[in-house]
Structures are given as structure tokens and as C-alpha cells.
Amino acid sequence: MSSRRLHVGSENDLIFSPKEGISKTRLLLLLAASLVVGFVAGILIGRYATQNEDHSPPEIPDVSLPLVRDADPTISKKILDAIDPARIEANLRYLSEKPHIAGRERDFELVKQLKKIFVDSGMYVQITPYDALLSYPSDDTPNSVRILDGNNTVVYDAKADESNFSNYEGVVPPFNAYSPNRLVEGSLVYAGYGRVEDYIWLAQNNINVSGSIVIVKYGSIFRGDK
């Protein structure tokens, strides 16, 4: 029994010879490098060639200009023309002509008046009552601050009212909200504006504020942070 061998292909049937394969590899590398250079060049051209000399955005009709152009000046003019300085002054005078401490009758009167103004302008306004913990000074036993000398003699007695405003109805005497009534005694320490750096300076100069009455002045920072 004779056998036959099926011969498929030969060296002459190879698509690339070893020499031709090396040339193809170089060609592929060159093509890849060209693509990278072209991609980078396209980015640079798109970044710089599409802008004007004054670096203004490119003019694309109906796309970019409506987004970057200035607002309609006629609208701004209508808003400014509708503002009446005299009316602003009158409203401010009405809101501030009487004391309106939070939670008192005058404060609620202003709430109702503001609601009326907004409703008359076509807005919907709802007043929601709620309970809040508020403290008020005593009209009968106002707070006082006194400085005593070594013999417990009063050398300074702070005013219990504000002379320029005490004649106005509803003015409350000075008080520190949410502070209980107590008799406090101690050495006086002045701490500037009551900032962190002020207390650091006191500590660096061996001044201890523990058990002392620290006096600070208004300004520099919010009074609630002192």
C-alpha cells in the first residue's frame, strides 16, 4: 500500500521573507510615530489657531456667542429704573424706627407687615409659629457692672441704660443673652479683641486668665466668637 504525503506550501509560499519582515516592522513603527505626531499637532492647532489675537472666544453662530456675550442692557436699565432710593429710605426707617427684639410684639408686627407687602406683590407667604428659647433682661432688676477696689468700694459703675435711646419706647437695657443672673467677682484681665492670638500673647507673657474677669472690646472678629 503506497502512501501519499500532502505537501502544503513551501518556503516560496511565505508571505514575507525574514528580510522583508524587518522592513515591515520599521514601516509599522514609522506609521505609528507619524500618527502620534499628527495627533499632537492637531491638538496644538485646535488650541491656538482658532483664537483671535485678543484671545477672544471663536465666533460660532448660535452656539458660543449667546453664552459669552454681555446681558441685555435694556433689562439692566429696567431693573435700575424700578429702584426708588426714597422708597428704600422710607422702608428702612419704618423697619428700624422702633426696637423690635426677637419674639416681642413689635417684631411680630413687622412680620405681618412684610407678609402684606409680599402678598400685594403677588407672592404666596405663610407664617409658621414655633417655640424658641429666648432670654430677656429684667426691667425691674437690670444687670450692672461695677469695679471695686481693695476695700470693696465702688470705683466705677457702668450705666444700666443707653442714654441716647432710653427715652424710646421698647428699648431694653444692655444684657448678655442666655447668661444667667449671677454675682461674679475676680481680677480683671484685658484681652484686646478676644482673638486666639490675644490669648496666646497673654499665655506667652505668663498671664493666667483662669478665675478672672476678661475684658474684651468690640471689633476685628464677630462678637459671638469672643
UniProtKB/TrEMBL annotation:
Molecular-function GO terms, alphabetical: carboxypeptidase activity
Transmembrane residue ranges: 27-49
Keyword set, alphabetical order: Membrane, Transmembrane, Transmembrane helix
InterPro entries: PA_dom_sf, Peptidase_M28B
Gene3D superfamilies linked to this entry: 3.50.30.30
Protein name in the entry: Uncharacterized protein
Taxonomic placement: Eukaryota, Metazoa, Spiralia, Lophotrochozoa, Mollusca
